Description:
With about 300 residues, the protein is of the alpha+beta class.
Amino acid sequence: MAERSVQLLLLLIQGCSILAVELSTHNQNPVVQEHQSVELSCIITSTKTKDPRIEWKKIKNDDADYVYFEKRIQGGLEGRANIQSKSSLFIKNTSRTDNGKYRCEVAALEDDKKIAEIYISLTVQVKPVIPQCRVPKAVPVGKSAVLHCQENEGYPSAVYRWYRNSEALPDDSKSTLKFQNSSFTFNPKTGTLTFTAVNKGDMGRYYCIASNDAGSAKCEEQELEVYDLNIGGIIGGILVVLVVLALITGGVCCAYRKGYCTSSSSRSSGQSYKTPAKPEGVNYMRTNDEGDFRHKSSFVI
Length: 301
Ligand SMILES: *[C@@H]1O[C@H](CO)[C@@H](O)[C@H](O)[C@H]1NC(C)=O
Ligand SMILES: *[C@@H]1O[C@H](CO)[C@@H](O)[C@H](O)[C@H]1NC(C)=O
């Protein structure tokens, strides 16, 4: 019972305000592309006053900025907008900054309290610009790889799609038979294409398209190379290098030894060479070390 009487009261109040000023609109959520014109329609369908007070405000969080006040366009829309058909706001060259919620307020002059208002949500769409794409140049088989695609101008925010050799890639390689040999996942909202382990089949020319309701833009194609990381070959290569190093070291030592031998043989007629008695051997080693040291220091100098 109480509920019903409240409803009745509400109806009565509404009825009263309808008697004062009544507003309607052709479109409460107009959508337009940037630089196009748009009408925020606010139509007075009934009013007792001949000359009601008309105001437009742009809602900003809890605040509101004047757009049309005292019969003048104010703020950011100055010079770009005018009032049409008595109370509608016409924006000639929309800008992305015009996005937002507007309020049309109409008041019967005799009674300021009898205000009618209507909210219009304006969407100004912006085409995406050419996205920034990052593709690694070369990745070894089995390694992970991440491809990035992003742009920040589009409104609403762009969604992305990667293409390989002009073929659109799905969000998950495992979802399509065709890409079953690949191992990637893709997030269309972030533009990030992630390979857990690339294989030869992933080689190709990649590009990305950013798109929203206003349009799309494509980045330049980039080549992704996938190469074999041949472990056996690498180990073999390292071994060859080690062997060569060993041979060189051996050769250098031998050359030192020979140099020592020729000089010592000229001194002691190769005696120590033929009969290396223990103390002599120690001597030999020591002198050799000294010779080595001398050689090195002369090299340094
Ligand atoms: C609309 O405004 C932009 C700047 O925001 C300007 O570059 C462009 O020339 C204007 N277009 C028209 C048709 O006035
Ligand atoms: C996937 O790999 C297998 C084995 O290497 C091959 O036979 C098959 O043709 C590949 N599938 C595709 C779609 O490339």
